[in-house]
Amino acid sequence: MKFDQLDERMRRLEIYHSQQVLPQAWPILRVDGRNFSKLTEKRFEKPFDPVFHQAMVQAAGRLLEEMHALYVYTESDEISILLDRNTRLFDREQEKLVSISAATASAVLSLAFQQEVHCDSRLCVAANEEVVVDYFQWRQADATRCCLNGWCYWKLRQEGMSVRAATRQLHGRNFAFKNELLFQRGVNFNDLPGWQKRGSGLYWQEYEKLGRNPLTGAESRATRRRVFCDEQLPLGPAYTEFLRKFMNGR
Ligand SMILES: Nc1nc2c(ncn2[C@@H]2O[C@H](COP(=O)(O)OP(=O)(O)O)[C@@H](O)[C@H]2O)c(=O)[nH]1
Ligand SMILES: [Mg+2]
Q1: In the chain, what are the domains?
Q2: In angstroms, what is the span from residue 133 Cα to ligand 1's centroid?
Q3: CA–CA dist 106, 126 (Å, integer)
Q4: Per the confidence metrics, is the pTM higher than 0.90?
Q5: Which of 1, 199, 221, 243 is most buried per CB count within 10 Å?
Q6: Does ligand 1 have an atom closer than 6 angstroms to the CB of 75?
Q7: How far is CA 28 from CA 73, 111, 135, in A?
Q8: Tell me, what's the pLDDT at 211?
């Protein structure tokens, strides 16, 4: 009896445990690498490193699987995860969704980098499809902005400019200025890889698997699904159309 009372009293202190994502709202989680500026400075090519990116894609794929997500998007050191508006995952408990997503990404990235790394996670609750579209358009715009800025910054640094001088030269400059700065240094922004300019999207792809019935020898077809990583994401209104497909009928 005594234990039961203590148990009940202690559990009542877990005041955030009962917090759930509102019914019918779309949960979006965003995982971000902790102190990855420091990690990438030491070990990876600037401004973009395909090995670093591959590890992020791997973590994004595991999150798609583990969280039974509809769509996962990664750029830089962050991963956004769209869940079904009717998901029953972890009973929609916010603490669970946030901690498990951070833990999954931390585990996969630690193994990939062969060193202990940590990620944080936050929850964004989108009331309707429009907000979900705005969210992913926002992260893609961030990817494009960071890509252009990152390329300019590292071009200037490679020419021997200090951190301060390079930062000052780019401060408040518009897209055209930065585009021109790169062009004069032999880089055409349009020709940069899609994953650098727009980020990468991961989603389920259905495919037909041919098999043979071991007893009768008859051919059989089964529909299976696998994780697909899209490194050529569409832009603007086409991206909106693309995103809506993941939410249609849900
Ligand atoms: N060298 C390198 N750095 C990257 C790459 N992708 C992301 N980063 C860095 O990762 C950091 C992510 O930003 P942010 O989360 O704000 O920094 P944090 O707080 O240190 O994790 C930035 O410093 C990026 O330059 C990459 O492919 N190569
Ligand atoms: Mg980070």
Answers
A1: 21-142+191-198 (3.30.70.3000)
A2: 25
A3: 25
A4: yes
A5: 199
A6: no
A7: 11, 25, 9
A8: 87
